[in-house]
Amino acid sequence: MSTMARVSQEHLDARRRQILDGAALCFARNGFHATSMQDVLKEVGLSAGAVYRYFSGKEELIGAIVGDVLGSVRGAFEEAARQSPPPPPDELVASVLGKTLAARESLLVDGRPAFPRLVVQVWTETLRNEELAAVLREGYGSVRATWGRIVEGYQEAGMMRADVAPDHVARTMIAAVLGFIAQQSLFGPAPVEVLRDGLRALTSMPDDRAAAGGAQLG
Question: Which residues bind DNA (predicted)?
Answer without folding.
Answer: 36-55
